[in-house]
Protein 1
Amino acid sequence: LLPVPAKSYNKSSMAVRRGRSAGRAEVRKNNPDQILGLEQQLHDKDKDHSLEEQQQQEQQQQVDQINTSIEDDVTDVDLMSEDSLFDEDDLDEEDDELDDEEEEELTEQEGENNREQELSNLTTPRPNQDKIMQRLMNDSISFSELTELMGEGETEICPAASVVDAPTAAEIAQQQQQEEEERAEEKRKRAVADSFEEELSQQQRQQLRRRIGGRAGRGRGPRLHPSLSALMGQANLCVGNSDPNEAIKMCLEVIRQFPNSYMPYETLAMIFEERDKKEKALQFNLIAAFLSPSPGKWIDLAEHYKKMDELEQAMYCYSRAIKQSPSTLAYHWSRVELLERMDNKGRALKCYTYMLKFLKPKQAEEGLRLAKEIAKIHFSLQNYVSARQAMETAFLRYPEHVSHEDINLLLDVLVTLNDYVNSLVVLQTYAKVKLLCQDMSEETFEQLPVGQQLEQATRCYVPPELPIDLRSKLTLCLIMTKTFTLAQPLIDALLSESTEEFGDLFLDTAESLLSVTEGARALPLLEKLLACSRHSLDPTVWRLYAQALVDGGGDTQQAVQAYYKVVELAPDNASARLKLSSILQQQGNHDAALLALTQQEQPYDCQVLLVRCKLLHERGDHQQFLNAVALLLGRHFINIRSRDEAEVLINNKKASNKLEALKELRKSKGEPVEDAEPSYTTSDVPTSEQWNMFVRACKLLHKNNRFAELERLTYSALGSRELMKDYMREVEFFCLQASMANNNSYFAFNLVRDVVVRYPRNNRVWNLLNQVIIKADDIRHNRFLLRRQQKHPEILALSMLNGHNSLVAGTYKYSLAEYMKVFKGRQNDPLASLMLGLTYTHMACQKFSANKNTMVTQAWVFLNSYRELRGDCQESLYNIGRAMHQLNILHQAIHYYKLALDCPKPVAGPGQPDFDLTREIALNLSLVYRKGSINMSRYYVRQYITV
């Protein structure tokens, strides 16, 4: 069977037209000129209605035969009459709905559009209907699968919106003016046609009573054919008569013929619920909610899911209900309450903002409540500007409904933003607070800007009914604007209040006075708090009391005792310890100042540790300073347990990779991954301050030759995320220096290798590498230098070092090639000439070398070139003498040794190494003379070597 369109009733339509004509005649007598526009509109409506009737008549002719066949098929069923479908109660409800529709026609336009769209969708079967029924009857189906098969995915909560897009004050004023003009114009027009509309409304109700076809009534969905309605009635009777199987068959038949009706699904849900199949009943209810245009079914489902603590499903149901009836604010409030329960403030904020679209001008309480909720969320997210804008917009739109609670919330936001002048404006506008001037009338004085009022005001009027919390806010604003003349009477009035009940207001006022260094004015408030048993043991009150004594020029010793009381009551109060230590240092009591900074219990405050390190360093207590620095830096330094862990930290460059590799190493050894370290507070210490303490500790350890501790400290810094972020290069260089100082050539080469790769054209880097190579116990540097030379063949320092390696290895030809490359590049370099001369000397001394005379001659040439470039000094003459000594040309060796002895000795500066070669020269001369003249040999030993 096909869905049957509704019948048309010509008699009802004619009656409506006659009623309209009579109404027009009556109104035309009273208002002949003003009714012309309305007549034209009604004429157009009549034409449209006539076309609609003609279409309905054509449809009626097409379905008459189908109606006849339907009636023959259901002769055994007791059909429900049309009167049973629409009784008098239904008509009364429809009358009430029409009245509501007239009042809410403009505000519910979007909801009507949504419902019409859903009704149009319901006239065609859904593509997955058969699949859904098969799954439901055979097995269960999940919530997400059901929504997907119904073609309704996750419903978006609301369009993207932000309170920042809310209108400004000027826009609101302009909008209000336009709305007033529109309301006045509308009121004038409606006054003309009120009588006419009233007559027509009754006729429209009568027409609706007689109409069964046409547009479906609100909340009713698509009409079932009377035969199918009767079949549904029979199914309900079967349920009542305890014949659920037959009822299920009837419901399935209705679904087969008219699949988009929600009624059979409701009946099936009731049947399965009685069979205690809650899950399947819930799924049928879900389908009924999808097919029904009424949002009430979604609300029932949402409440059910809330009881089951399935909040996401409940959220979906509320969103579907809002989609069907967006102007019902109760649904919105239920949804945002659920979001607040889920602690999803971001989505709640979007929903609150979405509700603004459906607020009516008369809903002031709802508007203010909505603004407060939006402001609270923004305030909790520290988005104070948006919170302020939300509250100010609501205040401008509903000024007559602003309560003291609303004012207090807006003042909290403004005080957080340090906008005390506008806070006073709010109090003047909405709390009836007045600033008065003795020399000026009240009306004239109110015309001045608030800034000038504060400068010239002599008195502040406060309404007696103003709550004390708003009085406290007013006092705070006057204090922060430094108008103490106006604030002092309010402070005196606060002193007369009970500290037991309003102690927090005493504390807030005292803090505001201390923030503007008015300690003397704050002392009476704090003394009264200390006299109260409830606040006498509060460390905050004692701290403020001590600060007031210091700022107000009171007894310093009494302030010290107050700070000691704070430390006693709150040992972890870092600010009190620091302030106490500062006062004690000013008094010259340094031992007590250090003792005040000693923290016996964890967690340790890093700021206190930093100040303690500085004091210990100034006093020269080195060991205590090192202990304090180790405790300060231990928060983010790595405790190195073995040499393997140090190697892991050196070889990995990124801090994250270092820590990850360290964890893997400890796991492989079966050791605990984390170290048992002390706990620290979250007190922020600048990285630069920590770096300064680290550098001081390194210098102190190096100065005292404690190289092993220095190496351990620097390696620990490699695992620090804070230092490695800003000082990675410096930390690595400190590690290199510590390794070289501790003769750890293995780690030193690993560190200097990275420096060479990073700065290949820096000669100081090559000198540093050479120092590491001199002390190296392996030959790893050989391959490294060869690879570097392939990449940078133009760097002569690489050629020099490769020549040294070849010379030490005995491959003189390779070293000769490297030295010659350096010599060609720097012919004025005495070192290149010296190394070439020595290389030829070694080659001439080889057993099987050919042309030894030529090699000696070449060696002599380069050595003399070296002498010319270096000059006559101990170094050059001694080196030439050694070469002659090696070639066994002893007379030349004696000659150059004696010349070297006659040269002036180099003078070493303070702290500089001694380069005097006298003892080395004398020793070599004694060795030369030992074979031929023992007396001369002894002479040089006694003359230059004997101590």
Protein 2
Amino acid sequence: MSSRSRRRAAAHLALVSVLVLAVLPGSGVAQGAVAPGGTTRVSQDQNGGQWTGASTEPAVTPDGRYAVFLTTQNADPLDNSPTSQTDAYAVDRRTGKTSLVGIANASPVGTVDPGNGQSVFGASTTRVSVSDDGRYVAVLTNAVGVDAQQSPPAGVDVYLCDRDTDNDGVYDEFDAALNRRETYCTYVGDPNALSAPSDPTATRATEPKVSGDGSVVVWVAPGKGGSMRAVGLTRDQTGRVQPPAAADFADYAGSLGFTHWPTTSRDGDYVVVSADYTEDSPPGAVFGYTPATGQLERVDVGPDGQWLKGTLVDRRVAVSADGMTIAFDWRDTGTDTQVYVVDLDPDDDGVRWTQNNGEPFRSTLVSRKTDGTPGTGGSPSLSADGRYVAFLTAAAGMHDGADLGDAPPCGYPGLSDDSLTTCQVVVRDVVVDVQREADGLGRLPAALASVQAVCGGPPQCGTLLPNYLPALTGTGAEVLFQSSESTLAGSDTNGVADVYSRRFTPSAGVAGGALPDTVVGAASSVVATVSHTGFGPLPLGQPVVTGPDAGDFALEQNQTCAGTTLYETGQCLVTVRFTPTASGNRTATLSLRDPGGAEIATYGLNAVGVAPDQPTPTPTPTGEPDQPNPDQPQPEEPQPDEPQPDQPEDPAAAGVLAVDDAQAAFGESPVGATSPPRTLVFTNRGGQPLDLTGASLLPTLPGGTAYPGDYAVTSDGCAARVLEAGESCAVSVTHTPAGAGRRDALLRVTTADGQAPALLLTGAGVAVSLAVSPAVTRPGRVVLVTATGLPANTAVSVVLAPDGLTVPARTDAAGRFTASYPVGREAETGVFPVQVRSTTGQVLASTSLLVATTTAKPPDFAGR
């Protein structure tokens, strides 16, 4: 399953019943208590010392390992540039290694070691972008003679720097034999600048962006009317980028007007760019561009399905890794700047919305306050899956921290200063926002990322000085940003801008009921609810049980936490079965862990094992035995060849009902499927007759949970029966588990004198997994229905309520089937059950399918 599909599934539970991870409503965080996390300074030396040079324009790889930014600090031994010169640097945050990226490979301009053919750029770098693996860095510089193979003679231009030219996975190595760094920067700017160096317009470029996979660089050519250019890159066997030829460039000018800040999907197959679109007044629009086909589509659509009217403020746009979600800031006439997120594929069918193709979309104004009213927002950044959006805001009542008064102006265009706050960095979970809105619930506060370490008044608050340019990691767990605040990570006294990181550290709370006292050998269970606390993604690994009596506790198969990721307000379930092996107190610990095995939360398991009841011995008769009455007829002696009933252990003892429990264990059955009947034989082991009234299922199970409704007495041969000594009767029982996991019950055959021996019936339900793909469709389309956990080699049928059409299917030896189901062209719209039925009409599994006609307002953006 793709990351996008997982993101959709996490919030689509109300629609697809087969999923077990529930995203449920939760309460917000009290204002002034920010989401747990930690802030660190990224632009610093390896010992944590402050730099005196300013650091700006942060970019970060999806895994958060490599941060790339601009700085005037000379933090690399190779860097001998003037302190006024801005250079590109990369920091390996795992090792602390800090390296200069802007290295010229042509004739030395300001050499450190004359004769090595390598030097620092001879002029400032003004823009920077990094590939997902951190190897390739796109830079914008007006340095001359950067590339030994080809470089324009003058002008601001674009280069792509390779930090691993020997392809060994270790970046920025120093080759002692060659006395040089392995980094090599290749010219990827306008090829006309090489062929026509006298043309000053050909040597200008701005705002470069490298795709996540390093295959494409996009940039804007101001000297060519602000047209956007996409450069397809080729690499040799070592991954080193080859100088592009003129044929590698795709140029789009059209009628967009001047373009700004193009950005790409991870594979470079989709480019999003803002433009001074002159057909609107005031001019401005956002477009999506497919380099392979040249297709251009406008995408700045509002929640009402109309094009947004107004201006792009910062003009920076953001796009998810798959190119299906975009974010941008927008300022309508008479309003402050606000942030929108547009999902171009809310039905997750892989087809991107365009104005005329009939696909759905979802546009959301995300810069809203906790009371739901619009607030200011700008400079958005998206996580790789498009779930999280970070942006700047100057609005009070927007986040979970305290708002401070007397803040200086924000300084960002269109973010008005309301005298309560300056430019703060906040992060929102768009999926949770939209799901809560659909459920009629209040808005949770955004998570404040620019958190002061010390506040003069409230315990936690935003900064006094403004922050800029947030950049989210791939999962949204961490955001980097630029700030001049001195209290973000301890005391900062350098008086210049630094790059900081705020990493959210959510945790989990575990709650559950008490385990009852349980008879040794019997079983009981408890369901523990694991709830997300804080903000940000919380990936979970396999829970484990530890402790002195861990062997008495086991995790049921229907636990839903392992391998999932919890998000804000999310929950999952862990069912623990207790089967004591000894009497007395039994203790263990349920440990919730992350995928790496680190403990997240624990839950104490405490229960008592109870010794089983001992049968009451039959009293030994005393005195002389009764003499037979000669006047009464005596029973005949049985003949040797006649079948004899089981003989009682003591002919004089009272009747005792015993049972053979060999057939009482039903094993596993698919949920909803009825097992073959089991025959349970009851025998009178006493010496006197037993008057039986019949068999019944008890509503309770001492020491556990009873599921009498899962069992049915299909034949009761003990009802209204007098059972002579040694005689037997039979009761037939079937098991139809209504749920997954252990499902036990007690069967009792009652005698007229009140004896009521009980038999423990054991069985378990295996969850039937039923999925429909896609989960949202239009009439006239075909969906794929897949099921697992059904009886093996069994004929079943698939039925959809609005059509009533029955599609036959047959399970394989593993109890699985896949069937294509055509949704009728005249089918009604709405949410309808999809059922798998047995040949007798019994519903074995059910889920839901949303049938919707083409609409500009899809019913559920949160199905991400």
